[in-house]
Write a structure and sequence with these properties.
Elements lengths: L1 E4 L4 H12 L5 E4 L7 H11 L10 H6 L11 H10 L8 E3 L5 E3 L3 H10 L1
Parallel strand pairs: 1-2
Antiparallel strand pairs: 1-3, 3-4
Organism: Nocardioides albidus
Family: Belongs to the ArsC family.
Pfam families: ArsC (PF03960)
Length: 118
């Protein structure tokens, strides 16, 4: 299991606690310190079945002084590059089980699904 997290995020701390409680071995990626590449984001999005704007924390864009592109296929690459350049915009935590199951673990049901898959 791999978890992309921000240690200052309460949802990330909750997810990590659930992994420990379930006895799941996992690795931590502090994605603010080690932002994902465009290719890594593409891979995660494919497993999630989502588009880049679906995992963006759009409310944080204003705080970062970032203009958001349109949410359409024409601007998809811009979204990917934006998330790489400003990883704070990425929803968290993102967990990937050893079988490839990937979730944005912000709720108990998503956490349970990824833990069961590992």
């Amino acid at each position: 299991m791999e978890i992309w997290l921000n240690p200052a995020c309460s949802k990330c701390r909750t997810a990590e606690g659930e992994l420990r409680a379930a006895g799941v071995d996992y690795t931590v990626r502090r994605y603010l310190d080690e932002p994902p590449t465009v290719a890594e984001l593409e891979d995660v999005l494919a497993r999630l079945g989502l588009e880049p704007w679906d995992i963006a924390r759009t409310a944080d864009a204003t705080k970062l002084g970032v203009s958001l592109p349109a949410k359409d296929s024409t601007h998809r690459r811009q979204w990917l590059e934006l998330l790489v350049d400003h990883p704070r915009l990425i929803q968290r935590p993102i967990l990937t089980a050893s079988d490839g199951t990937t979730v944005v673990g912000r709720d108990p049901a998503s956490l349970a699904r990824v833990i069961a898959a590992d």
